[in-house]
Amino acid sequence: MATNEEVKTKKYTAKDFSSDQDVRWCPGCGDYSILAQVQRTFPEIIEKEVEKIVWISGIGCSSRFPYYMNTYGFHSIHGRAPAIATGVKVANPDLDVWVATGDGDLLSIGGNHFIHACRKNVDLKVLLFNNRIYGLTKGQYSPTSEKGKVTKTTPFGSIDYPFNPISLAIGSNATFIARTIDRYPKHLQEMIKRASAHKGLAFIEIFQNCNIFNDGAFSVLTEKDTKDDSVLVLEHGKPMVFGKDSDKGIKLDGPKPIIVDLANGSFSKDDLLIHDEFSNEPILAMILAHMTDHPEYPTPIGVFRQVHRETYDAGIRDQINAVTEKRGKGDLEKVLFGANTWEVN
Amino acid sequence: MAEVKEKIIQTLSDVTVRFAGDSGDGMQLTGMQFSDTTAWVGNDLSTLPDYPAEIRAPAGTLYGVSGFQLHFSSLDVNTPGDVPDVLVAMNPAALKKNLSELRPNGTIIVNTDSFDAKNLKLARYENNPLEDSTLDGYHVHKVPISSLTSNALEGCPLSVKEVARCKNFFALGMMYWLYNRPLDKTEEWLKKKFAKTPELIDANQKALKAGYNFGEITEIFTTRYIVEPAQLPKGRYRNISGNEATAIGFLTASVKSKLPLFLGSYPITPASEILQYLSSYKSFGVKTLQAEDEIAGITSAIGAAFAGNLALTTTSGPGMALKSEAIGLAVMTELPLVIVDVQRGGPSTGLPTKTEQADLLQAVYGRNGEAPVVVIAACTPTDCFFQAIEACRIALKYMTPVILLTDGYIANGSEPWKIPELKDIPDISVSFRTETEGFFPYLRNENLARPWAIPGTPGLEHRIGGLEKADITGNVNYDPDNHDKMVHIRDNKIKNIANDIPELKVEGDETGDVLVLGWGGTYGTLKDSITRARAAGYKVSQAHLRYLNPLPKNTGDVLKNFKKILIPEINLGQLAKIIKSEFVISVEQFNLVRGLPLKSKDVLGKIIELAGGNNGN
């Protein structure tokens, strides 16, 4: 058996995070890329020993994720991963707790747990595999499916409006909010690293292609000839430029973002909106989030917002310590015999 | 000043008092103060708070009436009393709502100030019952409590409204005089309660004393009563409610198992108090998480159990329904978890503040799939302490969810408790798996319990979840034979626990005409009725189940020795159903689902009917 010293100095490789279980996602599924990027990134970002990492998931294709990671894992019940993860983290704040979840799991049946985990700022890393469809139940529309979508349960087109997960996370006061795409491995790795370094609830929406039930949902963002004009890569402190030849930019007209042409000489980079991840006000992040709802805008990816607030788990621990320091360590005899007692002789 | 007449002093062995008034009149507080003082002077007692679900229903209405019944005695007390001897009615609605319950020839103390036209109308009295024949046959003491209170508080800096709110302490003082109890305990309590507002201490203390002195000088009361201390076993005592006993029981289990306590819970009547009590024990390292909903309450606890805490969730019937799926997850992942259901009237929202025993089948069977769990129940307020510890012991030893059933009556009711010595409570031994050699997540020990290998342990990284597990390895497995095997293993694990719980005890003779078999909060009532039946010569015995799944292994043998089995329950026969199917015998039932404890006279009537005797006189 390895000694503690050896364990601490051990360098991990991607392979160390791969479990002995066969991966059972459909060939071509975007989930493979996410798993690969996580396993590639973990040796770099994990400061703790592998045994301190826990993956929690709910139900759905994405929620099989913990089985494929050679860490502690819990594949739970539909929608409840954030609540279970909260219990794990509060019980032992020394653990690194990651949640793998999907659009149905997190935003439909588990919506309540998600918004409250955000509100409480539990120190969890939540990876949303958003494929805008119910895959494991074979093709019903999800809470992120676009309006009008034809699926098995909406043969005449869906009539409900989708959630915007980034907007929901901002509205719920999550402290780290980012988006990336399964087909952008480097960017995906970068977002995982950033989330890992964040203290508090880190939320990453990952656009993930379901090649069986919703193939091509994000192709405009991933295909060679369209992606540059359709994706806006957010970088802190940089002007918002996009387009194949970096010839377009985003500028604000009041609260409304407008697309300007940088090629015709009317506007330069100096006129553009500068990204500020760390703004205390959620306004910029919210404007960027809602660009996703309008096809005329490019889709922003990157870190929308990162702020710092005490975490829930640390709050619980600190309160216990403060009360214990003030009153002394609990004495059960005092609880039992403390109140209004009398002697019968 | 009028000459004070000498009062007659009479000794009683047994008194049941009911305080009743508006929800805002402080009747619960008055009742609890009277209980604490009564316990302190050494009487045995049992209480029954009975209040509406509305926090402050419109003043003066019938549905806004809040009551607190207290039975105290120099003898052994098992129930809060079938019928009150004394009714303190603070307004016409309280009188109307409670009069029919009062014993014939009983005593009524009314606040005459509240019997005005408006309040009489709200209580739907066409005539003033103090002036017509409504109260004929009762001893009625008419006391202008409101005006006497405001007279006593003349010149104090409180508003008129605040002065009016002190009237319950006047009533309490009067009752203290009547039953010869000291004021000290309540005065101490006032000083603590209102430490930051000395004017409230002063006012309430004045009202309390004014009530006491009024008893002394008024000619309304000619008799004063003494109830001698009860002959209780030697020891140090306190008065305790079931919910507080449950909370302290869990705290004790945490200390005895050396595991941090984690409670994930969502507020719900009548269980919220357990969350409240436990949230005050921070200096014991207790973590309480007030969750966003019932489901998060239990699932966060499941997460905490996975991570190695002593994990609990507390709720009532509607919350149990919401937790069902997660209980199944705890069954499948075989994690230690305690679920408390403080039962209330159902179905649906039902009667939130009233008691019932109708969640038994939900607890035993209410899940998808074959999902056996241990179900135990507390039978008195103080038994909640021991059953909370027992639930933890079983959950930790067998790696299983355990459901602890209590109910609104024992949760809110209180009784004197001989405080146990900590050294007499055994340690709960827990060992986390650390050895990597030969580790498999679902390799079992002699109790069929799997190892508890918590995250953070090097070399034992593994995955669990709600999908069926392969025997031993715990990997996901859909093989038909494996499933059948695992279903049986989970079932046997729970069944085997019958070897590790006390046998069912018979109170009274081991054989006879009728065995009264009960479970949960009806214990006191059944004991009372059986004592009375036996005194009248009937061959009746009592057995009370504290373990519902598995049942004590001698249960069948106990039942065989009686001609008839009577199962009284505050439901339509849920234990009866279990007993009938388990032992294929016929049983007699007594079921009354009124949201209130059973009355011993009613059960007695049924016993007599079954025993085939006359009326028992």
Give a quick rundown of the structure.
The complex is a heterodimer of chains A (345) and B (617). Chain A is an alpha/beta fold.
Unreliable spans of chain B are none
Level-1 CATH class name of one domain in chain A: Alpha Beta
Count of helix runs of chain A: 12
CATH superfamily of the largest domain in chain B: Pyruvate-ferredoxin oxidoreductase, PFOR, domain III
Can you count the beta strands of chain B?
23
Number of domains of chain B: 3
User: What is the CA-atom radius of gyration of chain A, in angstroms?
Assistant: 23 Å
Q: Note the quaternary state here.
A: heterodimer
- The helix/strand class of chain B is alpha/beta
Overall residue-averaged pLDDT value of chain A: 95
The topology string of helices and strands of chain A comes to: HHEEHEHHEHEHEHHEEEEHEHHE
Distance between the termini of chain A: 60 Å
Structure, described:
The complex is a heterodimer of chains A (345) and B (617). Chain A is α/β, with parallel strands linked by helices and 345 residues long. Chain A has a domain at 10-222 and 310-319: 3-Layer(aba) Sandwich (Rossmann fold), CATH 3.40.50. In chain A, 32% of the residues lie in helices and 18% in strands. Chain A has twelve helices and twelve strands. Chain A has helices spanning 4-9, 31-45, 81-91, 103-109, 111-120, 165-171, 185-197, 219-222, 224-230, 283-291, 312-327, 332-337; strands spanning 53-57, 72-75, 96-102, 124-130, 176-181, 202-207, 231-233, 241-242, 248-253, 256-261, 299-306, 342-344. In chain A, the strands form two sheets. Chain A has an eight-stranded mixed beta sheet, sandwiched between helices. A three-stranded antiparallel beta sheet of chain A has the order 8-9-10. Chain A is globular, with a radius of gyration of 23 Å. The mean pLDDT of chain B is 95. Chain B folds into three domains: 8-227, Pyruvate-ferredoxin Oxidoreductase, domain 3, CATH 3.40.920.10; 238-424, Thiamin diphosphate (ThDP)-binding fold, Pyr/PP domains (Rossmann fold); 506-611, Rossmann fold (3-Layer(aba) Sandwich). In chain B, helix 1 packs parallel to helix 6, helix 6 packs across helix 8 (198-217) and helix 9 crosses helix 10 (272-279). Helices cover 36% and strands 21% of the residues of chain B. In chain B, the strands form five sheets. Chain B has a seven-stranded mixed beta sheet, sandwiched between helices. In chain B, helix 19 (574-583) links the parallel strand 22 (562-569) and strand 23 (588-591). Chain B is of the alpha/beta class and 617 residues long. The longest helix of chain B is centred in the middle third of the chain and has 20 residues, at 198-217. Classes of the chains: A alpha/beta (345), B alpha/beta (617). Chains A and B meet through strand 1, strand 2, helix 3, helix 5 and helix 11 of A and helix 1, strand 9, helix 9, helix 11 and helix 12 of B. Strand 12 (342-344) of chain A pairs antiparallel with strand 9 (235-241) of chain B.
